[in-house]
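Design request, tokens follow.
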């Protein structure tokens, strides 16, 4: 009985200590992060951290981490793992946040890979919102990556408005499979008018 009471007291003391320590340390503040952990981090307030570079009068480059106005969806106090940075084709020294990387097919392939898309929700949330700002639905962009990546990029570049191609120029001989299997198709030349 006495050991049970003693154990409860220690558990209560431990919980109180943990809560006090958490309250004094606070959460993640972007301005307190180093340039090695800033990019792709989320503050305790749910705002994304961005790395910025300034050039001092001496010509020396100085990096600072600051809190952006971009909010993460249901995520706080998060520093992205090195595994996600690598799997998603990201760089810890990325400056700012931009949708321009979605135009690069190599980056989009890594972002849409199962290792990134299914395991790194912070990164996917960020690029989902960036793509949406350009009028593109990220899952659709990932879907066309394997089947018709160039068309997906063209849609992204033009914010979703693409002129249709010739009606009968391409005939698929098989239904489009998953992105990892090549698609077989034939191109018919246009018919020439008789002389």
């Amino acid at each position: 009985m006495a050991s049970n009471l003693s154990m409860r007291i220690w558990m209560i003391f431990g919980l109180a200590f943990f809560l006090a320590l958490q309250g004094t340390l606070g959460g993640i503040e972007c301005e307190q992060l180093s340039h090695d952990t800033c990019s792709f981090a989320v503050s305790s307030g749910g705002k994304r951290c961005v790395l910025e570079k300034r050039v001092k009068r001496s010509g020396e480059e100085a990096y600072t981490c600051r809190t952006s106005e971009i909010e993460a969806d249901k995520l706080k106090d998060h520093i992205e793992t090195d595994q996600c940075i690598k799997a998603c084709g990201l760089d810890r020294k990325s400056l700012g946040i931009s949708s321009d990387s979605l135009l690069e097919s190599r980056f989009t392939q890594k972002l849409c890979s199962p290792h990134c898309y299914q395991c790194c929700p912070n990164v996917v949330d960020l690029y989902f919102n960036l793509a949406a700002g350009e009028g593109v639905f990220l899952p659709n962009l990932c879907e066309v990556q394997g089947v018709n990546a160039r068309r997906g990029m063209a849609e992204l570049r033009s914010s979703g408005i693409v002129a249709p191609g010739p009606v009968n120029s391409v005939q698929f001989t098989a239904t489009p499979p998953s992105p990892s299997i090549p698609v077989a198709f034939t191109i018919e030349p246009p018919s020439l008018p008789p002389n």
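Comment from the thread starter after seeing the answer: thanks! The two ends are 107 Å apart (CA to CA).
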